[in-house]
Amino acid sequence: MARIKIDQLSTVYPNGVRAVDSLDLEIADGEFFALLGPSGCGKTTLLRTIAGLEQASGGSVSIGDKDVTSFEPGRRNVAMVFQDYALFPHMTVSENIAYPLKVRRQPKTRQREVAERTAGSLSLGGLLERRPGQLSGGQQQRVALARAVAIDADVLLLDEPLSNLDARLRLEARTFLKRLQKDIGITTVFVTHDQAEALALADRIAVMEAGRIRQLGSPRDVFRRPSDTFVANFIGSTPMNLLDGTIENGSLSVAGATLPSPVDLPDDTKVTVGIRPEYLSLEPAGQGITGTVSTIENLGVSSLVTLECPDGSLLGLTVREQHEPAIGSTVTAVPEQGRLLLYGKEDGTVL
Ligand code: ATP
């Protein structure tokens, strides 16, 4: 097991695309770390550069105390699971799991023993003689994981390993993966574009954009206090409300309402006001934003209510189904104490 230290790392493709751009990052020993971001932000390239499958153009990658920047993938002692699992179709489950040991010329009995033990811990015990084509997606995913952890690697790298599973299996696999990672305690870097998955699984998350890290923090930090409007837009299953606001007479004027400003700013400062739908509630009285209920969307146990405010802006809030207001009624949404965020108009960073 080992920590990963990345210093000023850049990965530039031959076509000139700077997929990873002077990036610094330290991942602790035993940490479950998620790289999150939209398509093309460079998360897969960063993972592949850690693995040695892409060559760094500048900077360094260290695993444990070793600078591995110039090491071949095979010398880095990392295990990787790819999005499509990359199982060998002509080999049995047992042979697939034992493959890395075979390559390392371990004795047959040891290969068999490790395959059986690993398969057992991943609930694949009865499937050792099957071939990948005879397995469900969830089982194939577990075989890929088993093969990765069969060698005592220092680091486990996962590239969207759950993306080929349907919604139900995905939830099951998430729980499984989290438990496995904590049991083995292996330093794990997990690439996903699914923010809910990152929030659910990771100890810490790096939100990336254009080859750089926009925010680094615990799922709670990133959810509660996105450091800029890019992260605010990206995180959350219902998007954060981002409204135009102005400081007037020391208070915040937003969507036709006047609220206490969470930050002391000079009058006439223009800001973007961020508030999550989950942190707004409908109150009969209180200082909030008043609007007319325009739509209600069913989210399961809760509903997303959209208000149209006097200045035309739209405000979303979630309520329990039994508290749904009537469409067309006028209601007031009150922000939970301390949950209103202000972002600068120029650079979109939190104030
Ligand atoms: P996705 O979620 O779609 O996989 P990503 O965040 O993992 O995206 P990367 O695959 O790392 O992003 O790609 C980062 C950038 O590098 C993109 O602009 C992409 O087009 C470019 N890129 C990726 N692979 C190559 C390659 N082999 N050659 C040239 N450019 C590449």
Write the layout of secondary structure elements.
Layout: E1 4-12, E2 18-27, E3 32-36, H1 43-51, E4 58-63, E5 66-67, E6 78-81, H2 93-103, H3 108-121, H4 137-150, E7 155-159, H5 167-184, E8 187-192, H6 195-201, E9 204-209, E10 212-217, H7 219-224, H8 229-234, E11 241-248, E12 251-254, E13 257-260, E14 270-275, E15 280-282, E16 289-298, E17 302-308, E18 314-320, E19 330-335, E20 341-344
Parallel strand pairs: 3-8, 3-9, 6-7, 7-8
Antiparallel strand pairs: 1-2, 1-4, 4-5, 9-10, 11-12, 11-14, 12-13, 14-20, 15-19, 16-17, 16-19, 17-18
Helix pairs in contact: 2-3, 2-4, 3-4
The structure holds adenosine-5'-triphosphate (ATP).
Could you explain the architecture of this structure?
It is a single chain. With 351 residues, the protein is α+β, with helices and mostly antiparallel strands. It folds into 2 domains: 231 residues, P-loop containing nucleotide triphosphate hydrolases (Rossmann fold, 3-Layer(aba) Sandwich); 104 residues, Beta Barrel (OB fold (Dihydrolipoamide Acetyltransferase, E2P)). Helices cover 24% and strands 34% of the residues. Strand 4 and strand 5 form a beta hairpin. Helix 2 crosses helix 3, helix 2 packs parallel to helix 4 and helix 3 packs across helix 4. The two termini are 39 Å apart. The model has no long low-confidence stretch (mean pLDDT 92). The site of adenosine-5'-triphosphate has 13 residues, from helix 1. It comes from Kibdelosporangium persicum. Keywords: ATP-binding, Cell membrane, Membrane, Nucleotide-binding, Translocase, Transport. This is Sn-glycerol-3-phosphate import ATP-binding protein UgpC.
